[in-house]
Amino acid sequence: MNKESKNNMIEELAKAPNSKKLPAIWLRWAQWLIISCCLVMAGIAVLGMKHSFTSLLSMWDKVIEMLALTILTIVASFNAFILSIPGEETRFRRRTIKFLVAGIGSLLLLEYYFLQLSPIPVGIHFGCVMDILILGIPSALLLFFMLSKSANTFPKWSGYLACIASFSLAAMGSRYTCMDISSIHFLVWHFFPVVILGWIGFGLGQKVLKF
Fold first, then answer.
1. CB–CB of 165/188 below 8 Å?
2. What secondary structure letter does DSSP report for 109?
3. For residue range 137-196, what is the model confidence (pLDDT) as tens digits?
């Protein structure tokens, strides 16, 4: 489908009366975020906490990391719901998402460069990736289900945003289930998997969210 045809289709969908009115974007987003936070906390309880909330929040660099991932989760998930409503896609800013993803990766590298006094071997830690999958898949399934109830005019981007949001939230949770709190470890075994899962979301969105 070329760009002109797609724009015409979006205009028709936006003007067409909805037989089944969906709740407001912010309400659906808030429902997903609250339920997902509960799911992640339940997952942390099952996997076992290695650090207390206060211990990590007492380190300013970890606070910045958590804040950055929180912003990415909020922005990505809200934009996913925006793309599920025909006519609202003009509010979506791809550059903002790309900037946030690249910015968090750069932040972790800078933290490692300026704060780490001696090199740390990254090693192989597939257990951390497994924790992220365990914590993030329930939230991702919920978000894909909620998005499938509407007309996603950009299913690839909807899938990407859904995965980025869900697994960014899971990456925050995995901070508490992992013994290694170094920035380089978090970059390689917690954040990079989120980026890869986001790219997988492109394909999932095309298959699952295409209407």
1. no
2. H
3. 999 999 999 999 888 888 999 999 999 999 999 999 999 999 888 878 888 899 899 999
Q: Is 147 exposed, middle or buried, given 0-12, 13-18 or 19+ CB atoms closer than 10 A? A: buried
Specify the DSSP class assigned to residue 187. I
Tell me the pTM: 0.85
Which DSSP letter does residue 89 get? G
- CA 129 to each of CA 19, 89, 97: distance values in angstroms, whole numbers, following the listed order: 42, 32, 22
For residue 75, what are the CA distances in angstroms to 13, 35, 71, 137?
A: 25, 17, 6, 19
Summarize pLDDT for 33-60 with one digit per residue, the tens.
Answer: 999 999 999 999 999 998 888 888 888 8
Burial class (CB in 10 A: 0-12, 13-18, 19+), 105: middle
What is the per-residue DSSP string for 12-56? HHHHSPPSSPPPPHHHHHHHHHHHHHHHHHHHHHHH--SS-HHHH
Residue 92 confidence (pLDDT) above 80:
no
Q: How far is CA 88 from the centre of its chain?
A: 20
Domain ranges of the chain: 28-208
- The answer to whether 121 and 189 are in contact (CB under 8 A) is no
Question: Which of 107, 101, 115 is CA-nearest to residue 193?
Answer: 101
How many residues belong to the chain?
211
